Fold this protein.
Amino acid sequence: MSIILIEVDGLLQRFKDLIKKTSENLESNIVLAIDVDEKDPQVLLEKCVEIIDAVSPHICGVKFGRPLILKLSLNNQIRDLIRLAHEKKLVTIMDAKINDVAHTNLNITTQYFDAGFDAIIASPFVGWDGGLDTVFQEATKRNKGVILLVHMSHKGASQGYGRIVIDPDSTKKIPQFIIFAKNALAWKADGVVVGATHPNNLTMVKQIVGENVPIFAPGVIAQGASPKDAVKAGADYLIVGRGIFSSSEPEKSAQKIKDEVNSTIKKLAKSDFEYS
Ligand code: XMP
C-alpha cells in the first residue's frame, strides 16, 4: 500500500512536518497507543478497528507496540490497521525501540516501513556508527521518520537515561538523556520520546531541541501525569493508551484529553509562555 507521505504543495515533507500538518488539520495532538489485548487474534483485530474508528476524530496518529505485532501478522492484519489509520488521515508510528547492530536494525526498519509505517521509534543507546546510521539512512531514502527514545517515564529510567555521564564535548558531568536530546538534533530525528512523569526533564529536553524536534510524551492519565502539565512542560504530542482504550467510553475520553490539550495550548500562546 502506498503511504500518505509525503508530497504536499509539490514539496517533499519530512515526518515531523506531516504530523504537524495532520494535527493542525484534525485539531488534535493526541497519538493513540493501540495496546489493546485479547487472546483471540481475530477478536483483537476487531477491537482495534472498533477503537480506531471510534476515536479517530480526536487523534492525529496511532502508535503500534510490539505486543500487538506479536499477536497479529505484520503482513496481514497490521497492514489492514495501518491502512485504516491512513484512510482516516492519521499518521502511524511503530514503537520498535530499535536497539541492535546496524544490519539487524536495517532489516527490522525495512520490514516495518514496507508494512506501511510512517515512522519508527529507536533507542539512541546504540549510537550512530554501526548502530542507528542505517536506520536514519533508510528513513531519509524513503521519507519516513525516526523518533528517538530520550527519557522513559518509569521510576527505574533514571538508572539509564538519567545516569550522570561525562559530556564528550564539554567534559562536564551531565545526565545521559541530555546527550540523547543533542543526538536527536544532530542526527535530524523527527521526534523524541520523553516521559511526561518527569516534567523537569521534559522541559530540559525542550530547551535543547526547541521547535526543531517535536516531543512525544507518554505517561499521562494511567501513569498519573496530567495532559495539561505535560504540554506546559514542553510536550508537542501526547501518547495515550489506557487512558483512552481502557475507559468505558473511549471516544469521550479521547475528546476530553484533546480539549484539555487544545485549551492549554491556546492559553500558553496567549501568555507568551517560555520554557524555563
Ligand atoms: P499508557 O497506557 O501508559 O501507554 O498511556 C503508553 C504507551 O507509550 C509506550 N511508551 C512509553 N510509555 N513511558 C511510557 O509510559 C515511556 O517512556 C514509554 N516509551 C514508550 C508504552 O509502551 C505504551 O504503548
